[in-house]
Amino acid sequence: MNFFTEVGSKLVATLPVSTIDPLNYISEYSQDLSVTPLGFQEISKEITAKILPKSSTKKAVGCDGVSMKLLKDNSSTFAPILTHMLNLIVKHSIFPDSQKIARVRPLHKKRDKSELNDYRPVSILTATSKDH
After folding, report:
1. How far apart are CA 74 and CA 38, in angstroms?
2. d(Cα 97, Cα 5) in Å, to the nearest integer?
3. Which phi and psi angles does 67 have, rounded to 5°?
4. How far apart are CA 53 and CA 84, in angstroms?
5. I need a surface site. Which of 7, 32, 80, 91 has the fewest CB within 10 A?
6. What are phi and psi for residue 52, nearest 5 degrees?
7. d(CA 101, CA 97)
8. Element (H, E) at 121
């Protein structure tokens, strides 16, 4: 299983070092606190309440044990909480470490099931971290 935990750092080691400052890719920083440097805007509870019922419940449950079905079936309760969380992320431009934790599972790609290179890692994120 170390194969999947080490493959990323091994690939990064093969990349050339960049001399370009990453901030050069971001357009002028907005002084408007409702708009972040990447142009994200805060959302309303109404938007969250509209999106939750349309979310797929077929995705795997993440490390936190919270399923999208639970969030979807209780959208009126969770919409204000999720809206507040999302708006804090947008306002501060910080994605919480707790939402970055994933379970990594090997998924067979092709050919020989005994060959580690014939598997790819799949990260299973928390329901609130996934795109919907």
Report:
1. 31
2. 18
3. -90, 155
4. 18
5. 32
6. -55, -50
7. 7
8. strand 119-124
Q: Are 71 and 82 in contact (CB under 8 A)?
A: yes
Residue with tokens 């490390």: 63
Residues 69, 53: Cα–Cα separation, whole Å: 9
Best CA proximity match to 129, nearest among 106, 95, 104 = 95
Task: Give the CB-side neighbour count of residue 14, counting CA atoms within 13 A.
Answer: 4
Q: What is the pLDDT of residues 10-58, one digit of tens each?
A: 888 898 888 887 766 655 444 444 555 566 788 899 998 888 888 888 8
What tokens were used for 91?
């306002």
Contacts of residue 25, defined as CB under 8 A and 6 or more positions apart, other chains included, come to: none
Give the SS3 label for residue 106.
strand
Q: How far, in Å, CA of 39 to CA of 51, rounded?
A: 20
Length of the chain (residues): 132
What pTM does this model have?
A: 0.61
Scan for tokens 């970055």, then name that residue: 100
